[in-house]
Amino acid sequence: MRLSVTKVLEAYRRGYFPMADPQTGRIWWFSPDPRAVLPLAEFHVPRSVARLVRRSVFEVYHDRAFDAVVAACADRSESWLSKELQAVYRELYRVGHAHSVECWQEGQLVGGLFGIAIGGAFFGESMFHRVTGASKVALVHLVTHLRWRGFRLLDIQFLTPHFLQFGAEEISRHLFEKQLAEALALPVHW
């Protein structure tokens, strides 16, 4: 069965997200317990990343090259971003639910991230960098934008050492579902 925008949005609203098996392309749905989030109010910017942001090493934009960001995130030896998932994320972008934050240098896309926005919740999906620090700077800009727009939840799905340095934490599925419901009820727009 082909993924539809409606089905994918409903899954996110219920706390599930899709990932494809890198070998077969089969889509699996996940709702981990515990769930990793980046608390927007307690977001921590490491000193080295703060220096990069202050120095304006990258030009940072939103939604200028969404398709290129998704393609770059999928460009790995093994990727959960199957062609089918890439297509549905591009469609979610076209209907206003998927967004990218991009870092550019000398006219070249050198890093970025993308995710899904529904109400006051942002579901971070993937990030990439071709220049050291670019994806981290994109993350700082994402959090700044989410705070400015009134978002309440930044879901990062799984806790990694990369996200720990920014203050990421794991919360129970019960608490995640509570925070998700509160965030979804907000009349927030990207």
TrEMBL record:
The protein's location, in the record's own words, is: Cytoplasm
Catalysed conversion reaction: N-terminal L-arginyl-[protein] + L-leucyl-tRNA(Leu) = N-terminal L-leucyl-L-arginyl-[protein] + tRNA(Leu) + H(+); N-terminal L-lysyl-[protein] + L-leucyl-tRNA(Leu) = N-terminal L-leucyl-L-lysyl-[protein] + tRNA(Leu) + H(+); L-phenylalanyl-tRNA(Phe) + an N-terminal L-alpha-aminoacyl-[protein] = an N-terminal L-phenylalanyl-L-alpha-aminoacyl-[protein] + tRNA(Phe)
Q: What is its EC number?
A: 2.3.2.6
Molecular function terms, GO-annotated: leucyl-tRNA--protein transferase activity
Q: Does the keyword Glycoprotein apply?
A: no
Q: Does the keyword Methyltransferase apply?
A: no
Principal location: cytoplasm
Please give a single GO biological process term from the UniProt record. Answer: protein catabolic process
Keywords of the record, alphabetical order, are: Acyltransferase, Cytoplasm, Transferase
Q: Which SUPFAM superfamilies match?
A: Acyl-CoA N-acyltransferases (Nat)
Entry-linked InterPro entries: Acyl_CoA_acyltransferase, Leu/Phe-tRNA_Trfase, Leu/Phe-tRNA_Trfase_C, Leu/Phe-tRNA_Trfase_N
Name a GO CC annotation attached to this entry: cytoplasm
- One Pfam family here: Leu_Phe_trans
Biological role stated in the UniProt entry = Functions in the N-end rule pathway of protein degradation where it conjugates Leu, Phe and, less efficiently, Met from aminoacyl-tRNAs to the N-termini of proteins containing an N-terminal arginine or lysine.
The UniProt similarity line reads:
Belongs to the L/F-transferase family.
Q: Cross-referenced NCBIfam families, in alphabetical order?
A: aat
The protein here is known as Leucyl/phenylalanyl-tRNA--protein transferase
| Provenance organism | Rhodothermus marinus
